[in-house]
Amino acid sequence: MGELSSRTGVSTRSLRYYEQQGMLTPMRLENGYREYSSFTEDQVRTIQLYLNLGLSTEQIAGFLHCVLKNKEAFCEEVLPVYQQKLAEIDTQIHLLQTIRQNLTDRIESILSEQSSDGGNHNERTDS
């Protein structure tokens, strides 16, 4: 596991997690050590690619075996996951744009009030 970790740059903790999620299946030697095939390094890099797209390990596990054997275009599970993720990102962008506009409005309001006050810093008297 340590060798695979250093070859891929993925922590042993992450590799164990991928194994728990069923995305990696090492063979066990008699001494209990894990033995990974040469193909496992490609599996880990593929998992990392999908994680970098913002997908969860559950989503990845749903189509990983297919994309390791075929091109993405021939794995019917991939496109709906991509479309769902894109919709989530669009929703997040909309929310962030709304928050940004609200902050911009508050900043403009404060700056406008400060400049119209002419340096008179009266404390708020309303309760």
UniProtKB/TrEMBL annotation:
InterPro entries noted in UniProt = DNA-bd_dom_put_sf, MerR-type_HTH_dom, MerR_fam
Pfam families referenced in this protein's UniProt entry, alphabetically: MerR_1
Residue runs in coiled coils = none
- HTH merR-type domain: which residues? 1-66
Keywords, A to Z? Answer: DNA-binding, Transcription, Transcription regulation
What PANTHER family does UniProt report for this protein, alphabetically?
HEAVY METAL-DEPENDENT TRANSCRIPTIONAL REGULATOR HI_0293-RELATED, REDOX-CYCLING DRUG-SENSING TRANSCRIPTIONAL ACTIVATOR SOXR
Please identify the protein, giving its name as recorded: MerR family transcriptional regulator
The opening ranks of the lineage are: Bacteria, Bacillati, Bacillota, Bacilli, Bacillales
